[in-house]
Amino acid sequence: VIVGITPTVTHNSLGAYCENDASVTLSGGSPTGGTYSGPGVSGGVFTPSVAGPGTHPIVYTYTNGDGCSDSISKNVSITASPFVFMLGQASVCEDDAPFALTSGIPSGGTYSGSGITGGVIFSPAAVGVGTHTVYYTRTNGLCSTTDSVDIIVNGVPNVNLNPLADVCISTVFTPLTGGSPGGGTYSGPGVSSPFFFPSAAGWGEHDLVYTVTLNGCSSSDTTSIGV
Fold first, then answer.
1. What long-range pairs does 112-117 form, CB within 8 A, spacing at least 24?
2. Residues 137-162, mean pLDDT to the nearest whole number
3. HSE (CB half, 13 Å, CA atoms) of 177?
C-alpha cells in the first residue's frame, strides 16, 4: 500500500470588490497549479457581477502527484454598486447661457466632461459646436457607477440683412429680399413676411428684422427702410 502525502494548501486574502468591477484572474493559492470554485468563478476567473453583493466563499483546491488533495476557503466581499441612469439631453445652441444639468438619476451625483464646472454647470459656448459626452457619477462608499449621454451643441446661423431701398408711401407693397441665409422671416412695422406695406408702417424710418432658425437656434440682423 502506497500512502501519499497530503499537500498543505494556503491562500492569501481575497479582499473586497465592487459589483461592477471587471473580472479578475484569481491567484494567491499555494502550491500553485490548483483550481478555484465558488460563486462567480469560472476557469479560474472571478466575476463580481455574477457572484452578486454579499460575502462569498471561494475555495482553492490543490492535488499533488500522489493524487492527494487539500483545499482552503477564503471569503470575498462584494459591495453593491450604486444605481445610475442619465436621461437623454435635448440639443442646445452655442449661444445658450450656462445651465445646470439635471438628467442624472437619482440626484446627488456629479457631472464631468468638457464644458462642465462645479460638477453640474454645462456651458455650450465653452465647448463649441459638436457632440460632447457628459458623464454622471454616484459614489457609495467603496463603489462608484457612471453613466453618460451625448449633448449636441448646434451652431447659431450667421445672418445678414442687406440695406433696403426707400419706398413711397403710395406703394401698395414691396417684396422683402436681401436676407441671408435664405428661409428666414421678416418682422417689423408694416411687415407681413415676406412683404412690406408702406402705408401700414407710415412715414419715416423703420427698423426691419430678418430672423433665421436652424436646428432650433436663431439669429437675426436688422436694417432700416425709409417710407
1. 112/137, 113/148
2. 94
3. 3
Helical H runs in the chain? 48-51, 124-127, 198-201
Query: What residues does 206 pair with on adjacent strands?
Result: 225
pTM score, two decimals?
Answer: 0.74
Express each pLDDT in 46-90 by its tens digit: 999 999 999 999 999 999 988 899 999 999 999 999 999 999 888
CB atoms within 10 A of CB 77: 14
Q: Where are the alpha helices (DSSP H) in 90-156?
A: 124-127
Instruction: Please state, in angstroms and as integers, the Cα–Cα distance from residue 147 to each residue in 80, 106, 137, following that order.
Output: 16, 12, 7
Q: How is residue 54 written as a grid cell?
A: 454579499
* C-alpha–C-alpha distance, residues 144 and 19, integer Å: 10
SS percent in the chain: helix, strand, coil, step 5:
5, 50, 45
Closest to 151 in 3D by CA, of 107, 110, 115:
115
User: Which of 32, 143, 135, 16 is closest to 81 using CA atoms?
Assistant: 143
Contact predicate 179/198, CB 8 Å: no
